[in-house]
């Protein structure tokens, strides 16, 4: 968590104390609730399917009092003989949202996911947005650093059409710009 100015050794030594020290107090109850709800959900998944699921959520971390919104994705890699998480991959990246929350359980290879509602304390089934082949091409070429004009030339469309593709992508992914669209599409495995 270099965003907090910590070297890896200090992060390892802190363990879970990291959250009490570097997450704003007003968001700590959310993390406790999502931990409870996440494990409750996870324990209802058949053991042979548990490594196919991951949880994703957004929260702030503090760096000299400045709030930085991050997305945390936890994916099980190894389970104990009774199906508990023994080893997990934790990925932290910049969030594409503007506020904490967005607690979601995803199954790899499925467009369905479950979003946790902190008010009702229920998991609600949702559907991932579907990108057309054209939208995927625009995103893929954007990742490769091409401008809208370059993309238009490469896939034989006008820059105006490419702009329309991008606008549809932004609406589908609920983002504000191409950087957020790339991150959202990548994080949600839409490409």
Summarize the SSE layout with pairings.
Elements: H1 8-14, H2 17-22, H3 28-43, E1 53-63, E2 66-79, E3 85-94, E4 101-107, E5 112-117, E6 122-127, H4 133-143, H5 148-154, H6 159-173, H7 178-187
Antiparallel strand pairs: 1-2, 1-4, 2-3, 4-5, 5-6
Structure write-up:
- The protein folds into two domains: 2-127, PAS domain (Beta-Lactamase), CATH 3.30.450; 133-187, Arc Repressor Mutant, subunit A (Orthogonal Bundle), CATH 1.10.10.
- It starts with 7 loop residues before the first helix and ends with a helix.
- It is 38% helix and 28% strand.
- It is an alpha+beta fold.
- It is built from seven helices and six strands, in the order H-H-H-E-E-E-E-E-E-H-H-H-H.
- The longest helix has 16 residues, at 28-43.
- Helix 4 crosses helix 7 (178-187).
- The protein is globular and about 55 Å long.
- It has helices spanning 8-14, 17-22, 28-43, 133-143, 148-154, 159-173, 178-187, and strands at residues 53-63, 66-79, 85-94, 101-107, 112-117, 122-127.
- A six-stranded antiparallel sheet has the order 3-2-1-4-5-6, covered by helices on one side.
Order of helices and strands, N to C?
HHHEEEEEEHHHH
Structural class: alpha+beta
Number of helices: 7
β-strand percent reads 25-35%
CATH superfamily of the largest domain: PAS domain
Overall pLDDT level: 91
Q: Outline, from the CA principal axes?
A: globular
- Side by side, the strands of the main sheet go 3-2-1-4-5-6
What is the rounded Rg?
19 Å
CATH class of the largest domain: Alpha Beta
* Integer tally of domains: 2
Percent helix? 25-40%
The end-to-end distance, rounded to whole angstroms, is 27 Å
Which architecture name of the largest domain does CATH use? Answer: 2-Layer Sandwich
Oligomer: single chain
Uncertain runs are: none
Largest sheet: 6 strands, antiparallel
CATH topology of the largest domain: Beta-Lactamase
Number of strands: 6
Protein name: Response regulator transcription factor
Pfam families: GerE
GO molecular function, one term: DNA binding
InterPro entries: Sig_transdc_resp-reg_C-effctor, Tscrpt_reg_LuxR_C, WalR-like, WH-like_DNA-bd_sf
């Amino acid at each position: 968590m270099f965003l907090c100015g910590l070297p890896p050794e200090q992060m390892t030594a802190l363990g879970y104390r990291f959250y009490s020290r570097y997450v704003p107090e007003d968001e700590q109850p959310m993390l406790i609730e999502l931990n409870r709800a996440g494990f409750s959900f996870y324990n209802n998944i058949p053991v042979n399917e548990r490594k196919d699921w991951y949880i994703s959520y957004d929260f702030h971390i503090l760096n000299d009092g400045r709030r930085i919104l991050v997305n945390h994705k936890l994916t099980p890699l190894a389970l104990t003989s009774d199906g508990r998480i023994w080893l997990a991959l934790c990925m932290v990246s910049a969030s594409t949202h503007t506020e904490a929350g967005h607690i979601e359980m995803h199954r790899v290879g499925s467009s369905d996911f479950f979003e946790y509602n902190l008010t009702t304390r229920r998991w609600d089934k949702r559907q991932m947005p579907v990108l057309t082949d054209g939208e995927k091409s625009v995103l893929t070429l954007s990742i490769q650093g091409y401008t809208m004009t370059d993309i238009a030339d490469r896939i034989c469309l006008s820059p105006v059409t490419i702009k329309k593709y991008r606008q549809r992508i932004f609406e589908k992914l609920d983002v504000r710009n191409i950087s957020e669209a790339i991150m959202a599409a990548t994080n949600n495995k839409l490409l």
